[in-house]
Amino acid sequence: MDTWSPIHDRPYSPVPYRPERMPVDESLRVAAELRDRMRERRTVRAFAADPVPEQLVLDAIAVAATAPSGAHQQPWTFVLVRDPEVRARIRVAAEEEERVSYDGRLGEEWLSALRPLGTDMHKPHITDAPFLLVVFQQRFFLDGDEQHKHYYVDESVGIAVGMLLTALHLSGLAALTHTPSPMRFLSEVLGRPRNEKAFAVIPIGYPAEDAVVPDLVRKDLTQVIVEV
Ligand code: IYR
């Protein structure tokens, strides 16, 4: 298999793309099943200690890494943090930032938007979930001393994380999209290069037996679709 390297100086050669056409009735069945399964996805904040096969996480990352990206620059790095000591340091730093945030840095409007969810500065999942994945966005590509700008980085990495969450859910796993703010400490603790910026911290595992989630209601499709 080819190893990827950035292309600046020549067009990609066109290659045929002829996926087998799915019969419409099968498409409809798959789409409805996927819709119903994805309606069961919930953000989980309490994880069971039960081990998770690492392959499930690696396969979900593989799915995320197929996301479309600006100029096909694939501006993402997935850091799978195994070292318990590193995880402990991330938790301490994240809880320190969150304490300042919840103590007022977020501002009253933001804090009242969060109140219904009942979140607070405590982030036990950072150390307690079986896996911790930290997603970084590559703001530019570093080629020795040369820098090449990346395009649509937020959009590309956001799509990749959406695909990751979908893959995890369809594999039977639960996850939390945690965005401590500011996240600069993650680059330091994880030793990431200067072209990378933390995007999200994603604990992964099975929900704890006594896990609860807020009684949320999703918008009805009539509230999110406009047909013109
Ligand atoms: N980053 C904080 C606050 C927070 C912000 C939003 I917007 C949320 O949807 C949830 C939490 C935290 O993780 O607690």
Automatic annotation (TrEMBL):
Residues 39-206 form the Nitroreductase domain. GO terms for molecular function: oxidoreductase activity. Keywords: Flavoprotein, FMN, Oxidoreductase. Gene3D superfamilies: NADH Oxidase. InterPro entries: Nitroreductase, Nitroreductase-like, Nitroreductase/BluB. This is Oxidoreductase. It comes from Actinokineospora globicatena.
